[in-house]
Amino acid sequence: MEGTSLIMWGMVFGAVGVGFFMYGKKQKVFVPLFVGIALFVIPYFISNVYMLVLAGTVLVALPYFVRI
Questions:
Q1: pTM over cut 0.85
Q2: What whole-number distance in Å separates Cα of residue 47 and Cα of residue 59?
Q3: In whole angstroms, what is the distance from residue 52 CA to residue 26 CA?
Q4: What is the pLDDT of residues 11-37, one digit of tens each?
Q5: Residue 1: which of 49, 39, 43, 44 has the closest Cα?
Q6: Please, how many CA atoms are within 13 Å of residue 4, restricted to the half-sphere of its CB?
């Protein structure tokens, strides 16, 4: 069951990451660009579902609070 959850959360954060990446690349804004890259890379390194959801949520919220 945990493997299925990891795959699904990885797909969700990967899809959101692709959106952030495309937005950051098109608008030439670095924070969403790097957050997008991080969002579709972190599921490869985090094997705990709760840590993946926590890290993904923090990364999704990061561009809202950090404006460079």
A1: yes
A2: 17
A3: 27
A4: 999 999 999 999 999 999 999 999 999
A5: 49
A6: 1
